[in-house]
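hi! just following up on the protien thing from before. the input was this:
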Amino acid sequence: KNADDLALLKVYMDGRKRPFTVDITDGRDRSSEQNRLAFKWYGEIADQTGEDREDVRARCKLEIGVPIMRKASEKFRATYDRLIRPLDYEDKLALIRDTDMPVTRLMNVTDMSRYMDEVFRRHAEFGIVLTVPPDRFAYDPERRAA
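and the predicted 3d structure came back as:
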C-alpha cells in the first residue's frame, strides 16, 4: 500500500531461497470487514427465507459472484465456461456449495464491493432486511465528542 510495505516486501524477497515466482495484481485484497459482513448477510437471508445458510451462500456466489468474476478474470471465465457452464443450475449450485468453489475468495476489494452491493440490492427487492454497517467515514458528532 505504501513505501514501507514495499520495503518490507523487498526484505522478505531478499530472504527467500531462489528461484521463486512472484505474481503481482493491481488493487487491494478483500478486507476482513467485507468477509464478516458477507457471512452475516448469508445468515440473515437464511433466517428470513428459511433457506440453509450454505445454500444462500452458494446461490449468491453463482448468481452474483460468477458474473462478476467472469468479467474480471479471463482465466476464471475460460475455466468456468469450459468446465462448469455446461452443467444445469442445480449441479452448479451443488458444485459451489459442496466443494466450496472459490468465487468471492478470488475477488479484490472493488469486485467484492460490487458483489456486496448486488447481494444487498437483490435481496432488498424481496423485502429482506440486511444489516447496514455504520459508515466509518461519515460525520458522527457523538464519536467526535468521545
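The radius of gyration is 19 Å.
The chain has a mean pLDDT of 88.
cheers
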